[in-house]
Amino acid sequence: MLSIIIPARNEEKIIGRLLKSIKSQNFDCEIIVGNDGSTDKTAKIAGKYARVVTGKWGHPGSVRNACAKIAKGNYLLFLDADVVLPNNFLNQNFKEFIDRKMVSATTYVKPLSNKLVDMFIHGFGYNLFYFLLQRISPLACGFCIFCRKDIFIKVGGFDRSITLGEDHDLVRKSTEYGRFGILHGPKIKVSVRRLETEGRLKYLLKMVKAALFMTFKGPIRGEIEYTFDHKSKKVP
Question: What kind of fold does domain 2-216 have according to CATH?
Answer without folding.
Answer: Spore Coat Polysaccharide Biosynthesis Protein SpsA; Chain A (3.90.550)
